[in-house]
DNA sequence: CTAATATCAGGACAACTGATATAT
DNA sequence: CATATATCAGTTTTCCTGATATTA
């Protein structure tokens, strides 16, 4: 009686899938647990750093950039506004939009975050990777993006 | 008045950090939204597939393998037991342990999950990657693991 | 007595859906 | 009228912490 044939390659792919499953899960949790430090949630840090590097934006634009619904960024932004880290003003050119920009206090906060390498991902990239490995990582981005493509 | 010096390499690393931030976030969400299909949550699928490939286990061992707390797997397992997909029996050799194994119904369920390529990660690995690219991905695992190391 | 295992109870985080108001 | 933007309210998912009982 013959065993059902399962190629070695298929078995290896299942193993890879399993490793990726654990890796991706661990990544989410690791990222989430970073949130407790420096008093800002991860979405808040992401928004703050994005406003710093790309300038003023809107709820909808931020949502598109982060790949989430506007309502989700809305909550994030509400927290940042309450903390006085970002300021909102109506867009003179389009009355539907509310332009969001970093407040002065936040600029310093972002500088500190970066200078002290408190930005978790940046810190790891600097401390645990050689320039060449960062290059490898950049190359792997294309592959990883296939997991989130529609 | 001189500009403050920020090397091009540092700017590139910040960009890489930002891309990774978005990628990792999108990955978590993509994985989460897969849960709605085939009636099992992701943790449930992970546990089921692990019990299938590695045989009977315990709550604590599963928690270690998945990198979460035993209480988290406990909830997952409770759901699977309620659905009749796994069975529990006291370990004769160690009274503290409860051995978990797939129920008969679940074996078929897992077979179906796999045969039909309903396992999301496996499906993507098979359909969107060449064998050579899967090899590249395996190589990148080492790099990615650095993000979750203590 | 200390360590490991399992489980109960409650809470936090970050996304979601649906509905609504306003401006283009 | 159809589309885009912002926001209110409530829900879901998945993990967490803390406490407790049992066995090694």
Poorly predicted tracts of residues of chain A: none
- Largest sheet of chain A at a glance? 2 strands, antiparallel
Oligomer designation: homodimer
- Helix-strand pattern of chain A: HHHHEEHHH
Considering residues with a beta carbon less than 8 A from a beta carbon on another chain, report the largest interface and each chain's count: A-B, 52 and 53 residues
Q: Label the structural class of chain A.
A: mainly alpha
Shape of chain A: elongated
* SS field, number of helical segments of chain A: 7
Strand tally of chain A: 2
C-alpha termini separation of chain A? 43 Å
The neighbouring-strand order within the major sheet of chain A is 1-2
Q: In which range does the helix fraction of chain A lie? A: 55-70%
Assess the beta-strand content of chain A as a share of residues.
5-15%
Query: Radius of gyration of chain A over alpha carbons?
Result: 20 Å
Mean pLDDT of chain A: 89
């Amino acid at each position: 009686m013959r065993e059902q044939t399962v190629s070695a390659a298929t078995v290896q792919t299942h193993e890879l899938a399993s490793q990726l499953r654990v890796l991706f899960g661990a990544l989410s949790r690791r990222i989430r647990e970073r949130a407790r430090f420096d008093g800002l949630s991860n979405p808040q840090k992401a928004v703050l750093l994005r406003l710093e590097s790309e300038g003023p934006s809107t709820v909808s634009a931020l949502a598109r950039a982060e790949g989430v619904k506007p309502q989700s960024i809305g909550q994030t932004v509400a927290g940042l506004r309450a903390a006085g880290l970002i300021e909102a003003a109506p867009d003179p050119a389009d009355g539907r939009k509310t332009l969001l920009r970093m407040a002065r206090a936040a600029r310093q906060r972002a500088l500190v975050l970066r200078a002290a390498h408190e930005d978790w991902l940046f810190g790891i990239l600097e401390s645990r990777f050689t320039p060449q490995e960062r290059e490898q990582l950049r190359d792997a981005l294309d592959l990883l993006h296939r997991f989130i493509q529609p």
